[in-house]
Here is the input.
Amino acid sequence: MKPINLIQTILRLILTCTLGLFGLIGTVDGGETMGNPYQILEKHYEAIGGLDKLKAQETTYREGTISIEGAGLQGTFKQWEEKPLRLRQEVDLTVVKIIGGDNGEFRWRIDANGKLQIQKDENTIKEREVKKLMEVYEHLDPNSAHFTLTLECIEKVNNVDCYVVKIANQINTDIQIDYYNTTNFYLVKTVLIKPNIEEHILYSDFRAVDGVIQPFRETVEILPTGEKQVFEYAKYEFNAEFDIGLFEPPHEDVEDFQFVDGESAENIPCEFIENHIYLPVNINGREGLWVLDCGASVNVIDSTYAVELGLELEGPIKGQGASGIVNFYYVTLPSYTMRGIRFKEQKVVAMHMRHIFQRFLGLEVVGILGYDFLSRFITEIDYANEKLSFYHPEKFEYQGNGKVFDSPLDNDHMFSLPITVDKTYSGKWRLDIGGSGLDFHYPYARDHNLLGLEGIDAIAAGAAGEYKVRFSQFKTIELDGFTIENPLIGVPYQEGKGSFAEKSLVGNVGNSFLRHFVLYLDYKNQRVIVEKGDNYDYKFPRHKSGLQLWYTDNNDIEVLFAAPNTPADEAGFKKGDIIKAINGIDVDYFDGIISIRKLLKEKAGITYTFEVLRNKEFIEMQLTLRELF
Here is the structure.
């Protein structure tokens, strides 16, 4: 489950949407159509006040209001900019306050809980390079080695004819498409296309400020979530003098935790169940089970559980999960403790998630410990021995013999690793200890002809619901000399709107691979350390039935899916069948659905007799396990 971080989204929008990147196309006087975008540029800049005036704007200050439609959130923003690349922005939505900027050397941001992140991932570095060149107007040069401008067509925007120009560059894959009023040359719309997000921006309420036309209203629609944000400008100010320290991040990072004993919490027992890691968390004297997930860009609490604790929900806001769109809220979480660590009050996200774990595992899981937890430590995960250790980032020095991978955090606070499958499919995979398996992202699978591979179909689930995936067996998966044989890797059936549709990465690497290792997550130094674990060479048992089960709302064990051409399919199981007994033993005597799944991983050739209820009739079925790959 991957709730999108609204904070990162807003900061990206302010970075890209409020920098005055005015139009690149229009018409000549008298309505003559122009086919050369560079000729049109000249007319556009004349219309808004002249390129010389824009180039003379060395510093810019903006402030105004922001509202998020449908979320009930509104607030204020301020932005300071000084060329080249220096930037600071502050957003106050009352429920969350966020700050981000660029000191001319690197981009940085402070999240709702005061945590500082220096952004040095490849995508950010390239975005900064593009922005720097745009600030000196290199895109206006027809001979630029970095930018290509093309006139696409004429389209209507709000019943106004607009020329459409596309700006591509040689530095990254981002594309900017601008729409210009063919009558007055004003920019009325911009579409920014990035690997995993699109921003559609409408400009209106144009006014002159120091002789230059500026939009005082911007309406931004974010895809794939469909969320709309409205920026209303109250003030523009140019060439004011700023203290250069304004653009620097704070010298000290937040420390909102305390170890109960000493400077670490080591060898803490955890539960590794169905390829997920669980820890108990105590809030106001009430203990609940939380899942550890570096793929969650914030901590998450189940919204129903939050209400039970008497916490106030603020929202809702649209977010992006692995398979689609979800609604979530903001909650102020009081001081909480887990084994060996005490946290101060934090801002977290609340959403309806408890039912997913109940339906698939029969576990009462009430929260996700994500970035707001993990980023405070160096976290050591010993999968084989089900132990966790948390070290203070200022006191930790690695002494082992594992391999150290530089892994700059991306916009969603996630690590990536260089992985090769079958010595052929190479690239960066997003590391996700909240993911149970290995999955290619749909765009990569499509572009590398992996969609038609033979395999076993399955239903997967995330915060946004269920989706279909096909698992195929490959020969090897390799991480810089660490090689695991015969991995199963999934491919989503459809591109969808979630993180598996992201184009910049090969896929997600989860615990079916990571469980072979001891893993260190070092957020401070943005690196991952990998050691061979005690289960490095262990061949974990696999499902041998093709039968997927879950709980109904009435706590019955129900058939969710019987994969075609598997023992479950051949035995005649159908979606909706209720499992009543196995080998004559009532399912109530089994230790839940997890114990039944273990039965289905036993040796090939074992036969089970199932008694199922279908349409109020009892049916007996014989299922014989076999290797599926």
About this structure: The first strand starts at residue 59 and ends at 68. The first helix runs from residue 6 to 17.
